[in-house]
């Protein structure tokens, strides 16, 4: 007999929840079981607009969804300032937790959330979608190839998108009481994660914010960058911004090879994604060109990356429910390292851009 799909309830009607509710529908082992808002009407409209199944429940409060024994897991796309309260309540109700990033405002809040998850035996995973794309595994195989790539030496990551005046005035990501981490939390999280991913999640020794961050009148970061340094002389930089053209670049450079891609967070196309590798290149005799040329690799997929994420999350939940397995600590460990670096960037800005030592 096939396993029943994991029943996921959505707490909040954020814009990103439209994408993730579709991903839950596409995942073969999950189903949208309900949506909660602070008003029944808003939740009902959200369900209708996003094609929820007829059996999906509508809740007029977050608490009523969390109290429902028919909900196995919760997707939490609320503003970051609300994560601490509602993530802990979700865990205490024994609901598994798929959370939007950044998970928390700082690592102390993050640790509170994970402690609640561990005490209640529930799985937690953050909503960083691109790490679940099959392309990501293929790229990792290249980075792990000592003959073609060698030893990692540097990583450069950039995520920016140009925001109109309405966004810069009204979006929750520029409000200090809602998403006080601004561009660093929203876009910088991806840059930090990509660097850690390339470095096999080895934390850097120090992090130094780059000078010249842009803040709005309320003190929320609209653009910033940082450099990361390891004891073995690896280096990395990232830049994130709400003020520059849409860019999602990632470059990892080894002793022998280079990995390049320009759409690392959201692929240009849903069902295929490419990347470029270069291994042991040189110049031709007259130094007018490269030999060999970089090679492009394309990965075709049947499920979009967000559905792959939900499938992985639901599989972990299913293993806990059916087999009594322990929650997988891989995902909260990766999230915590990302949060530690994010905290260090903020501390470095406060310290006049001096390097901050990472203490795990």
From TrEMBL:
It comes from the Eukaryota. Residues 6-125 form the Gfo/Idh/MocA-like oxidoreductase N-terminal domain. Gene3D superfamilies: Dihydrodipicolinate Reductase, domain 2, NAD(P)-binding Rossmann-like Domain. It holds the Pfam family GFO_IDH_MocA_C3. InterPro entries: Gfo/Idh/MocA-like_OxRdtase_N, GFO_IDH_MocA-like_dom, NAD(P)-bd_dom_sf. GO terms for molecular function: nucleotide binding. Residues 137-259 form the GFO/IDH/MocA-like oxidoreductase domain. Belongs to the Gfo/Idh/MocA family. This is Uncharacterized protein. It comes from Corchorus capsularis (Jute).
């Amino acid at each position: 007999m096939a396993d029943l799909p994991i029943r996921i309830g959505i707490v909040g009607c954020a814009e990103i929840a439209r994408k993730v509710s579709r991903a839950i529908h596409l995942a073969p082992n999950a189903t949208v079981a309900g949506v909660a808002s602070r008003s029944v009407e808003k939740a009902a409209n959200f369900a209708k607009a996003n094609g929820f199944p007829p059996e999906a429940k509508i809740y007029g409060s977050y608490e009523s969804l969390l109290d429902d024994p028919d909900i196995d897991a919760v997707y939490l796309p609320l503003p970051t300032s609300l994560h601490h309260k509602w993530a802990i309540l979700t865990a205490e109700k024994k609901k598994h937790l798929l959370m939007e990033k950044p998970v928390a405002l700082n690592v102390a809040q993050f640790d509170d959330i994970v402690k609640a998850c561990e005490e209640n035996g529930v799985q937690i995973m953050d909503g960083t979608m691109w790490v679940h794309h099959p392309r990501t595994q293929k790229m990792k195989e290249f980075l792990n190839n000592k003959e073609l790539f060698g030893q990692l030496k540097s990583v450069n990551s950039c995520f920016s998108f140009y925001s109109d005046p309405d966004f810069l005035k009204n979006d929750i990501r520029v409000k200090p009481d809602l998403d006080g981490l601004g561009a660093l939390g929203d876009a910088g999280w991806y840059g930090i994660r990509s660097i850690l991913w390339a470095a096999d999640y080895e934390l850097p020794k120090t992090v130094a914010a780059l000078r010249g961050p842009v803040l709005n009148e309320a003190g929320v970061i609209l653009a910033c960058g940082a450099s990361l340094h390891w004891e073995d002389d690896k280096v990395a930089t990232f830049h994130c911004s709400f003020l520059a053209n849409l860019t999602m670049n990632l470059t990892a450079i080894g002793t022998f090879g280079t990995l390049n891609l320009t759409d690392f967070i959201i692929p240009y196309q849903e069902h295929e994604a490419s990347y470029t590798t270069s291994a042991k290149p040189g110049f031709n005799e007259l130094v007018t060109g490269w030999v060999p040329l970089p090679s492009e690799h394309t990965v075709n997929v049947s499920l979009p990356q967000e559905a792959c994420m939900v499938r992985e999350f639901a599989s972990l939940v299913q293993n806990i429910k059916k087999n009594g397995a322990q929650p997988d600590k891989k995902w909260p460990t990766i999230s915590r390292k990302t949060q530690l670096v994010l905290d260090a960037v903020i501390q470095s800005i406060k310290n006049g851009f001096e390097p901050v030592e990472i203490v795990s």
